What we know:
Number of domains: 2
Largest sheet: 5 strands, mixed
Amino acid sequence: MIQKKKSAFYxxxxxNKVVLLTVFGIYQIVILAIGIVNYPYIDDIYRQLxxxxxxxxxxxxxxxxxxxxxxxxxRHLTDMGxxxxxxxxxxxxxxxxxxxxxxxxxxxxxxxxxSTIIGLNPWFLQCISFRFDSPYMALSILFSFLPFLWWxxxxxIFFGMSFISLLLMYNxxxxxxxxxxxMVLALSLKDLLSGKLVQNVSIQIVLSALxxxxxxxxxxxxxxxxxxxxxxxDVVKTASxxxxxxxxxxxIKMYLTSIYDQSSKVWILLFSLIVCLFILSVxxxxxxxxxxxxxxSLVYLVLAAIxxxxxxxxxxxxxxxxxxxxxxxxxxxxxxxxxxxxDNVSYLRIKVPVQIVTCLFCYYVLTFPLVYASTLHYQFNxxxxxxxxxxxxxxxxxxxxxxxxxxxxxxxxxxxxDNTSRNYKLLQKLVxxxxxxxxxxxxxxxxxxxxxxxxxxxxxxxxSLDEQNLKVNNYYYKIYxxxxxxxIIYK
Length: 491
């Protein structure tokens, strides 16, 4: 029996191999475009210089820790060039293929393209940009989809795989914790609309919830053995029981508002049309009454949108506002909804409008990663150019008697970045700010120039600098040397 099920899956892969290769191709092209930029993204710069992993110690991600040793062949990491982007693309492609297999029987090119939004959505681009841990963040998405290969087959194997896969998900990247819930809701909706009894669907939902809760508790128990986790402060703190309702309500508002504020207008418009077409398609195809079909579809849309945030709903820190990579669950909810919609309109009169709207949405969302890669390239070039310029001006001024350099900020952003950000506000969160004096920029400056001097922040308004001590004055900055200290004032 198991062999038959395996054969059916392999037959499905063989029947759809051309379309599925499209999924692999899209992922490789887009992710390699980001990888070729060769930008050491935030934590990357430290790992490039030190070779430390710290996935387990700092983030309680033992799956990432062990997987990184396997990929590297050592516990000391080095920059492996395009190896990790290629691995990331392959893992995300497998995740998209599993999602397609679970949600639809017949795959079209448009369905294949839409499925790549799972890994190429704008909010997951930060994860892709990490040259060292992107494959393991991608694994968290794959683990979230994996149990659903047994959704219709064996409920006991499904429960066991849910527990194991979700525990692996938590140990690779916790931001994926909402994907499993979305898939449970999506498959439950399909079952209900196809005429299955509510009681039978409810049993499957309860079983899924039990697996989710048990794996979450197991991971919480695991984190208690990590004494260093508390050093991350509020980022890892959850609300107390009495504050839970208020925290969840606040997080829902913050999460959905952040997604809306960071989205391009055309994304919002097209997604609104997709939601309307989704409800209409349900009404036209459901075996249930129109009222029940509408209720089921609305419950799915509301709950999946909210629970796509996963366990972060009970965290006290506004994580979605902090970084986009904490909020990519919503985009995966959008991708799954589009797959359900396309699968549901094969023989309907609204097929053409659905295809047009979906094509436009996929075009605007999937071209954004290429816009991002281009912007990242120009921003990095601007940083390199200004780093060399500053180092050239500092080399005659900095010596053993001038241990500290102060600056009011760091470099100018690329003009191309500033211009592109007018259309895409999200870029301001995704692309690191060249002006920031935070530690990755400091390390990057040292790597480019070899000048091992920490640049400390200072406020020129509260410090008197003698113009007689002015050493450099150009388009970008003024440099003063006063009392054996270097002061840089960027214009």
